[in-house]
């Protein structure tokens, strides 16, 4: 994991960025002891909220997510995930830098689809 990318993410902890359309983003990111649930040692929550203060996009690892059941597949619990409005999807944490890229791409896609 790039130290620059990691420090960038950690330095965003507590930041809130209002947008002209009434939406806003919030960043929480800090080091934790690596564990089975959080092997990379970073607890994070990156969120986009609409003008009514509803979270509409979120990338976090605050709780476990059960994957959709497959007929014969093993049940793997994952903590890294993203919220797209009412839906929750597993997220493969690669690096702090990639997390930031993925978050901003999701924000741009949401806003580009005419949501605000």
TrEMBL record:
It holds the Pfam family TumE. InterPro entries: TumE-like (IPR045397). It comes from the Bacteria. This is Uncharacterized protein. It comes from Pelovirga terrestris. The lineage of its organism: Bacteria, Pseudomonadati, Thermodesulfobacteriota, Desulfuromonadia, Geobacterales.
């Amino acid at each position: 994991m790039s130290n620059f990318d990691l420090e960038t993410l950690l330095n965003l902890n507590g930041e809130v960025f209002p947008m002209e359309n009434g939406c806003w983003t919030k960043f929480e990111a800090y080091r934790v002891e690596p564990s089975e649930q959080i092997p990379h040692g970073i607890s994070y929550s990156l969120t986009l909220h609409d003008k009514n203060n509803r979270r509409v996009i979120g990338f976090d690892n605050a709780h476990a997510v059960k994957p959709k059941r497959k007929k014969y597949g093993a049940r793997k619990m994952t903590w890294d995930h993203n919220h797209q409005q009412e839906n929750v999807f597993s997220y493969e944490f690669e690096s702090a830098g990639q997390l930031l890229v993925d978050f901003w791409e999701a924000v741009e896609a949401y806003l580009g689809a005419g949501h605000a």
